[in-house]
Amino acid sequence: KELDMTPEKVIEVQKYGREPISLHTPLGEEGDSEFGDLIEDSEAVVPADAVSFTFLQEQLQSILGTLSEREAGVVSMRYGLNDGQPKTLDEIGRVYGVTRERIRQIESKTMSKLRHPSRSQVLRDYLD
To answer: Which listed site, 21, 96, 104, 119, has its alpha carbon 20 to 30 Å from 87?
Structure first.
């Protein structure tokens, strides 16, 4: 009575909750779409995010291009910019044939350079 439905209609609606529905069930009067079309693909990349990521990558490469080859290499390896796998100071030191302390010094000096407004301002827009 409170739902303003007949008991038969209530039983019918309850059945819908128990019976599986195919994702290919046609929707709409013309049946030109399916029930599955309404389910969001949580794995799909949002186009605007993909474009923004591409621009960020280009800006990072541009900024790294202002550094020496060694500085850019150390930062890229340390933060996994090339392969997505950050490297330890020891791993980077072995690549360049220097100690982990020397790599730490290079990283520290390079990060100071990157914090300078002439380089960092370009990336600030991506923080929002």
So the answer is: 119
* Helix residue ranges, H only, the chain: 7-18, 47-64, 69-78, 89-96, 100-115, 117-124
Other beta carbons within 10 Å of 96: 14
What pTM, to 2 d.p., does this model score? 0.61
**pLDDT 10s digits, 14-56:** 777 776 777 888 877 777 888 787 788 778 888 888 888 888 8
Cα 41 to Cα 36: distance, rounded to the nearest angstrom = 10
Q: For tokens 């390896």, name the residue.
A: 77
Give the residue extent of every domain in the chain.
7-38, 47-127
Q: Taking the domain 47-127, which CATH number applies? A: 1.10.10.10
Integer Cα distance of 108 and 92 in angstroms: 14
Residue type, 22: S
- Quickly count: other Cβ atoms within 10 Å of residue 122's Cβ: 14
